[in-house]
Specification:
Strand content: 5-15%
Oligomer: single chain
Number of strands: 10
Structural class: alpha/beta
Number of helices: 13
Largest sheet: 8 strands, mixed
Strand order of the largest sheet: 3-2-1-4-5-8-9-10
Order of helices and strands: EHEHEEHEEEHEHEHEHHHHHHH
Mean pLDDT: 95
Helix content: 40-55%
Length: 317
């Protein structure tokens, strides 16, 4: 399969490496002004791996026109502008796979909805689930999910992308998988805040109640609440809530400690959209609301935590 990977950050680079290892014809695209791409082109490596000669490195977006499948791994809030750039080169009858997690915070659209709006003559799938590039490069295996409204596309991708490192499952709930995957980054930020406060033991409650509130949100938007307990959300908690490699967890910890953090933490950008979605559907998201209040309303983290503990007692489920 001829594949273009858009996005030369740590995850896009890993995907290019992984698919190349399965003998696909892979091109890695990055913008000419990207510092990551400049280094990759000049040194054929980044902080994690050396890129083999079999991976084509390019700064020409038109490479997409020569590919069967295009993997997109960029910041969620820049997806729409990228799609409009692709529309300008008349991309049609291609398959796009979104290896990114988030909700567009200006519209509250799921990322697959953004692609369908901007590139309607193409197919779209999502590739979600737990895993860190640092572990994949060491050969540590994990399980992930591919989902799409198009059953044929989903089956074709799973067959082509399955290998010794990643076991793929067939997703059956695009709505739930996308919302769950985006929301787990917010739970990751909350986990980091607990770490920063020295309250790591509260992560048990965070995981249990976090999954439950996201299940309610998924249901309200037409998805299956059980998706919150699958690979897209609860199944990704170990990689997000505990791992040293999790950007979202690290961001939350740095935030409450008042330390700088320069890497992308999608949970920061996703939580405003979740709050809007909760208000529109009358679903309570107390954990997400606490994270939002701390990040965007300058509420003290201990006050936000106190608000959670002062809530009226309810049945667990």
């Amino acid at each position: 399969m001829k594949i273009t990977v858009i996005g030369c950050g740590r995850w896009g680079s890993c995907i290019a490496w992984y698919l190349n290892s399965l003998s696909h014809d892979v091109s890695l695209y990055g913008r000419a002004d990207s510092d990551n791409m400049k280094r990759i082109i000049s040194e054929r490596k980044n902080d994690y791996i050396d890129f083999p000669p079999s991976i084509t490195l390019t700064t020409d977006i038109k490479t997409v026109l020569l590919s069967d499948v295009t993997i997109i791994s960029v910041g969620a809030q820049s997806l729409r502008s990228l799609c409009r750039e692709l529309r300008e080169i008349n991309v049609r009858n291609r398959t796009f796979v979104l290896c990114m997690k988030g909700i567009e915070n200006t519209t509250c659209k799921r990322l697959s909805e953004v692609v369908k709006e901007e590139l309607p003559d193409n197919s779209v799938a999502v590739w979600l689930g737990p895993g860190h590039v640092e572990e994949f490069y060491r050969g540590i295996q994990n399980c992930m999910v591919i989902d799409s409204d198009d059953t044929e596309v989903k089956s074709r991708l799973i067959e082509a992308f399955s290998g010794g490192i990643i076991r793929f499952y067939y997703g059956t709930d695009l709505i739930g998988n996308e919302i769950g995957a985006a929301a787990k980054n917010v739970i990751g930020v909350a986990a980091g805040m607990l770490d920063g406060l020295g309250m790591t033991s509260l992560k048990g409650a965070l995981m249990s109640r976090g999954a439950r509130e996201i299940a309610r949100l998924i249901t309200a938007f037409g998805g299956n609440e059980l998706s919150a307990y699958g690979l897209c959300h609860l199944g990704d908690y170990q990689a997000t809530v505990f791992s040293e490699y999790s950007h979202n967890r690290a961001f939350g910890e740095s935030f409450v400690k008042g330390e700088p953090f320069t890497k992308l933490a999608e949970g920061y950008h996703t939580v405003p959209a979740l709050i809007k979605m909760a208000e529109a559907s009358s679903v309570e998201l107390p954990i997400c609301k606490a994270v939002y209040d701390v990040l965007y309303k300058n509420v003290d983290i201990r006050c936000a935590l106190g608000t959670l503990f002062d809530r009226t007692q309810k049945l667990e489920f």
